[in-house]
TrEMBL record:
Pfam families: DUF1348. InterPro entries: DUF1348, NTF2-like_dom_sf. The lineage of its organism: Eukaryota, Viridiplantae, Chlorophyta, core chlorophytes, Trebouxiophyceae. It comes from the Eukaryota. This is DUF1348 domain-containing protein. Gene3D superfamilies: 3.10.450.50.
């Protein structure tokens, strides 16, 4: 699976620009929050990126059927108090005929980590052999050697 070099990874964003990738009436579930409409998505992203500083993200294609795609992801961020977090999850996307995303369903779990445990902004992710055997996202870092990540 293709990895984006660390210097090109997402480290925060422009909610106004990102929201344009979604339909006017898009529907999202992000964790336990439900939003409807591009404007609501824009506000959700503003709040998210104000809270999640030094945000670094990896996404991995998992599968698709017709106009629906599933991805796995993990990201790390630091809060205002300096605590680092790592989040894992899955997203299901549904696209409209014009290519804009109509639905996004995100299930996300996160845990606090020490700064020394960060691994997304590193060049050698842990290889996950199960995903590699399935032919999807073998570089998805689910653990640090024998250390369980879930």
């Amino acid at each position: 699976m293709h990895q984006v070099p660390p210097q090109q990874r997402h480290t925060g964003g422009d909610p106004d620009r990102v929201a344009l990738a979604y339909t006017i009436d898009t529907e999202w579930r992000n964790r336990a929050e439900f939003v409807k409409g591009r404007e609501a998505v824009r506000e959700l992203l503003r709040r998210k990126w104000e809270k999640e500083r030094h945000y670094v993200l990896r996404k991995y294609y998992f599968g698709h059927v017709q106009n629906r795609i599933s991805v796995c992801f993990e990201y790390e961020y630091q809060d205002e108090a300096g605590q680092w977090y790592r989040a894992y999850g899955n997203e299901n996307w549904e696209f409209a005929q014009n290519g804009l995303m109509r639905k996004r369903i995100a299930s996300i779990n996160e845990a606090p980590i020490a700064e020394g445990e960060r691994r997304i902004a590193v060049d050698s992710p842990t290889r996950n052999t199960w995903l590699a055997e399935q032919g999807v996202g073998g570089e998805f870092p689910l653990g640090g050697g024998s250390k369980l990540a879930y």
